[in-house]
């Protein structure tokens, strides 16, 4: 058996799946969906920047203090020498480099996928104050310490205070449900019975949404009990249907 | 020659094209793109609500005081009896009813078109304080009076004060350019040389964007001189290329 030619850098946890972050799920779903052979290298938070610099991965943004911000996912394609950061750029790279494998973004939909992500991300943004603190509880010690320290600075509050509680929980959870409901209307625009965004086959927009459903199902089982009833069970059905692409190798 | 079976209700003006509103251009481009035979009935603002009620057109939203808000475009398809309001619903109706004509939203992209409009509309929203006052100056008297009265209430200021001036003009016009530039990135995602959003052929997203370019080119020639240089001349090229679908009948 030959060695996989793609190295996927992911962030570990104590969840049963090890993989937990929605952005990392997006890339993992993408690699599995395309049926590419890859191996995972697990990188704790404090090691992300040194690891990225070592393999020549670009930063994905700039920190408040002006320094480059290195994030995962990153993939390293040993067969082409390419090192790609950022979920969207990875998906575009995989389609461009492996066009004979199932397309994440079918012909003509690359721009639509960017517009979808822009609009959908604004609608689901209330998810972070729920998912981030719950995920931190399951990180390994070095990541847990790093994540708490850096996120408490960027959010300006403790992770415990970040989690919506009481009336704020009711309001924010409803806002999240309204966002998912709006996105469900887009899913239904092509046909009310459609499970997938484009109809017959899943595309990257499906994997993208499912990554958030996966995140809540792992990190907040009680909230997931509610979310899985939303929109006629839409998100639970989608998660189940894409289970075949959730393999962690 | 048979009588056209689609009646298109549009709002007149003193612009050379008569048609002026970006939402009306969307539907006009759509009808021409599909090659459907239609006739225009021109309706002044004070007559929109009575006309809609007369033909059984649904309101498209609710006013601040709770009353239904009737808007154009509306189409009346005499061959099916359907009366449809709202640009997006009209485009969906035309594709569903006339699937053998060129598709505005090609198979699998109905949901993507909704996401595109959601994201793009947020990015181009600085356009209204420019286009609305300039358009009012070219309306016929009854529309001009109605439009000024109702819009000055909804915007909470005179149309003259609505138009950005001085530093605000610089800031808002830049915000609009940034929005168009972001959308241009989506256009380029499928290929840097692509003129059309999905590549080879125009789709409703192209007609949608061009409707705003058309609006500025008609109502604010000085601003258009600047806008047509944006993004390598993208919007001028798109407007020119879709000229064949801008026929006003």
Helices and strands in order:
Two copies of one chain form a homodimer.
Chain A (H helix, E strand, L loop, with lengths): L5 E5 L11 H13 L3 E5 L2 H11 L5 E2 L5 E2 L4 E4 L4 E4 L1 H11 L12 H15 L3 H9 L4 H15 L3 H4 L3 H24 L14 H16 L1 H7 L6 H8 L8
Parallel strand pairs in A: 1-2
Antiparallel strand pairs in A: 1-5, 3-4, 5-6
Helix pairs in contact in A: 1-3, 1-9, 4-8, 9-10, 9-11
What keywords describe this structure?
alpha+beta, 249 residues, Glutaredoxin, homodimer, 9% strand, 4-stranded mixed beta sheet, two-stranded antiparallel ribbon, Glutathione S-transferase Yfyf (Class Pi), Chain A, domain 2
What's the alpha carbon Rg of chain A, rounded to whole Å?
Answer: 18 Å
Average pLDDT rating of chain A: 97
Helix-strand pattern of chain A: EHEHEEEEHHHHHHHHH
What is the domain tally of chain A?
A: 2
Give the C-level CATH assignment of the largest domain in chain A. Answer: Mainly Alpha
Low-confidence stretches of chain A: none
Question: Percent of residues of chain A in beta strands?
Answer: 5-15%
Strand order of the largest sheet of chain A: 2-1-5-6
- Main beta sheet of chain A, described? 4 strands, mixed
Major protein interface: A-B, 29 and 29 residues
CATH fold name of the largest domain in chain A? Glutathione S-transferase Yfyf (Class Pi), Chain A, domain 2
Could you tell me the number of beta strands of chain A? Answer: 6
Shape of chain A: globular
Judged by helices, strands and strand pairing, the structural class of chain A is alpha+beta
Residues in helices of chain A, as a percent range: 40-55%
């Amino acid at each position: 058996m030959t060695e996989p030619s793609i190295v996927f850098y992911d962030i570990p946890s104590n969840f049963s799946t090890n993989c937990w972050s929605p952005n990392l799920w997006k890339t993992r779903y993408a690699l599995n969906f395309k049926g590419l052979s890859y191996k995972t290298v697990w990188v704790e938070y404090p090691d992300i920047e040194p690891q990225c610099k070592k393999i020549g991965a670009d930063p994905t943004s700039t920190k408040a203090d002006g320094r480059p911000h290195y994030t995962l996912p990153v993939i390293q394609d040993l067969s082409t020498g390419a090192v790609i950061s950022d979920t969207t750029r990875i998906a575009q790279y995989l389609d461009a480099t492996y066009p004979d494998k199932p397309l994440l973004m079918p012909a003509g939909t690359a721009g639509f996928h960017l517009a979808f992500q822009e609009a959908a991300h604004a609608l689901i943004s209330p998810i972070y104050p729920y998912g981030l603190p719950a995920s931190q509880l399951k990180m390994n010690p070095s990541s847990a310490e790093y994540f708490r320290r850096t996120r408490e600075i960027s959010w300006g509050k403790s992770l415990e205070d970040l989690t919506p509680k009481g009336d704020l929980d009711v309001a924010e959870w409803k806002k999240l449900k309204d966002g998912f409901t709006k996105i469900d209307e887009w899913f239904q625009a092509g046909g009310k019975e459609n499970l997938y965004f484009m109809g017959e086959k899943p595309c990257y927009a499906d994997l993208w949404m499912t990554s958030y459903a996966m995140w809540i199902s792992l990190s907040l089982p009680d909230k997931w009990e509610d979310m899985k009833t939303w929109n006629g069970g839409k998100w639970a059905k989608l998660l189940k249907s894409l289970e075949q692409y959730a393999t962690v190798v």
